[in-house]
């Protein structure tokens, strides 16, 4: 465990393997340059994870746990964090991605920064308010919001901008009351709650 300061890992591409276990780190800065950050196995636990890589961030195994996911110098490519054991509480600004953003999370998550990608998929398995939008979520092709137990909501600052908003399932209600710009809504259902979406664009 590293209980104070910042741990910086640098390389042209960073791969986290089976024998890696980093825990209790206040700030973990992964600087992969023009390469890709790959979590293949092992465990990464940090209060703040800074992911800097023009090749993106992807997960093929392992577990990622962080209070905040953000970037310092830039994160391009795509982001795929698809393990059901992941624990990410806050997604801050990670900028504009050239690839898709796909996140599977086990705890309630709040988007506080500005995120842009062709397709954005957020799926959360927590109860209560599982997904909170308090920043700008821009999907240039589509945005998909899914929960298995909880609801989806936005604050006054939360904005969705996309040609298509859809979902494969939300257990509780969906309340998106910000100054959203949504051109079309696909399947958008809440099994046990209401659906309320504000829109400033022609729908």
Give an account of the 3D structure.
This protein has 203 residues and is an all-beta fold. Helices cover 0% and strands 58% of the residues. The chain has a 10-stranded parallel beta sheet with strand order 1-3-5-7-9-12-14-16-18-20, with no helix packed on it. The chain is globular and about 45 Å long.
Number of beta strands: 20
Mean pLDDT rating: 92
Number of helices: 0
- Secondary-structure-based class equals mainly beta
Order of helices and strands: EEEEEEEEEEEEEEEEEEEE
Radius of gyration: 17 Å
Percent range for β-strand residues: over 45%
Largest sheet properties: 10 strands, parallel
**Sheet with most strands: strand arrangement:** 1-3-5-7-9-12-14-16-18-20
Helix content: under 10%
The gist of it:
This protein has strands spanning 6-10, 14-16, 21-33, 37-39, 43-53, 56-59, 63-70, 78-81, 87-91, 95-96, 101-105, 109-111, 114-124, 129-133, 136-147, 151-154, 159-166, 174-176, 181-185, 195-197.
Key features?
ten-stranded parallel β-sheet, single chain, 203 residues, globular, 58% strand, mainly beta
């Amino acid at each position: 465990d590293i209980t104070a300061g910042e741990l910086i890992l640098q390389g042209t591409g960073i791969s986290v393997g089976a024998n890696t276990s980093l825990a209790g780190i206040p700030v973990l800065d992964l600087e992969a340059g023009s390469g890709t950050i790959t979590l293949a196995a092992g465990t990464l636990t940090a209060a703040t994870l800074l992911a800097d890589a023009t090749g993106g961030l992807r997960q093929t195994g392992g577990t990622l746990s962080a209070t905040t996911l953000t970037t310092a110098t830039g994160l391009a490519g795509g982001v795929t964090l698809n393990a059901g054991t992941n624990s990410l509480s806050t997604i801050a600004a990670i900028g504009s991605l050239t690839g898709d953003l796909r996140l599977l999370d086990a705890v309630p998550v709040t988007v506080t920064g500005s995120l842009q990608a062709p397709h954005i998929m957020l799926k959360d398995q927590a109860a209560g308010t599982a997904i909170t939008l308090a920043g700008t979520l821009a999907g240039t092709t589509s945005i998909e919001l899914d929960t298995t137990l909880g609801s989806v909501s936005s604050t006054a600052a939360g904005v969705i901008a996309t040609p298509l908003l859809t979902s494969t399932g939300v257990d509780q209600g969906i309340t998106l009351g910000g100054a959203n710009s949504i051109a079309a809504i696909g399947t958008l259902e809440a099994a046990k709650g209401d659906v309320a979406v504000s829109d400033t664009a022609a729908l």
